[in-house]
Amino acid sequence: MKHKIWVYAEQVEGVLQSIALELLGAGRTLATKLGADLEAILIGHGVSHLARTLIHHGADRVYVADDPELAYYRTLPYRRVLVDLIHSLPAVPHTILFGSTTTGRDLAPRLAAHLETGLTADCTNLDIGSFEYNNSKDPSKSGTFPACLYAIRPSFGESLKARILGPWKNPQMATVRPGVMVALPADESRSGEVIAIPVQLQGDDRRVEILEVMRNVTNLVQLTKAEVVVAGGYGLGSAEGFSLLQKLADCFPHSAIGASRKTVDAGWIDYAHQVGQTGKTVRPKIYIACGISGAIQHRVGMDKSDLIIAINKDSSAPIFSFAHYGIVGDLYQVIPELIAQIQSGQKLQAA
């Protein structure tokens, strides 16, 4: 029987999240190596129209659970849909991928616990390969596993990369950090199968009721979609420094403000702006790091940017070792001059 790679296609109020397309890109690579079908699982209300987008971005098949009771994410109803779907099929999927989002980090372990299988969290890379194992204490677990998911994640403060394997039972599960995988370009000529699945919630699944949804406007910070990120670190000296960074960011369309963890911990800026190990992973066209030392915890969140420009008065700051361009100097002198030069160039272009 042909293997299947599953991707949980996360959506919020009918809007497909970018992590869904990123996972399809990663899933397509795994499916090709495994000779498997790539399938997406779409759950919500009024979301059926999103299935075609998933197919255009690589899915061979999309299972859709569309029901008013699924309009807002709740752990138990969404878990019920996934569990019922898995039990209705002749074989469990080989691999299931979730995003390391608030929803994915909640739903994936619930499903893994129910299926009594392993789950690797916050992966930055995935692969399929063979694995030879000799267990003298339990020979039943020994052997060659030709179709093993290599779930790769940072460990020990990002200083090592660990390969986590769990080939003894399918599905092999992982959550993947947003922004680290690359979505495939949309191919509107692709065709695929869309399958509506029944929603049969049980009494206990309704234990939690959503009375009102209130969204923090800071969550609208589109760091992962920005083409230019201007990020500030503790070298700013105070929260007021972010006002200067905003002026620099305003010089570019599709820009956003990023921040190091230390500035967030100091209360200078909201967590929604945090880049790094415990924040968001970004890969903009330009990343301008201002007063950021470049510790490994921050680097992991931005080192895949196309162009990294560092501004820091400490010439020995680690960020200069991997930035494409470095400016050693006081950022409060450098940035105003940089803004003036950019604005001058823009005026010349417009003339």
Task: Give the helix/strand layout.
Elements: E1 4-8, E2 11-12, E3 15-16, H1 18-34, E4 37-44, H2 51-56, E5 61-66, H3 75-88, E6 95-99, H4 102-115, E7 119-123, E8 125-133, E9 143-155, E10 160-164, E11 172-176, E12 193-196, E13 228-232, H5 241-249, E14 255-259, H6 261-265, E15 286-290, H7 296-299, E16 307-312, E17 325-328, H8 331-350
Parallel strand pairs: 1-4, 1-6, 4-5, 5-12, 6-11, 7-11, 13-14, 13-15, 15-16, 16-17
Antiparallel strand pairs: 2-3, 8-9, 9-10
How would you describe what is shown here?
With 351 residues, the chain is of the alpha/beta class. It folds into 2 domains: 203 residues, Rossmann fold; 133 residues, TPP-binding domain (Rossmann fold). Helix content is 25%, strand content 27%. It is built from 8 helices and 17 strands. The strands form 4 sheets. It has a 7-stranded parallel sheet with strand order 7-11-6-1-4-5-12. A 5-stranded parallel sheet has the order 14-13-15-16-17. A hairpin with a 2-residue loop joins strand 2 and strand 3. Helix 5 packs parallel to helix 8. The chain is globular, with a radius of gyration of 23 Å. It starts with a strand and ends with a helix. The mean pLDDT is 91.
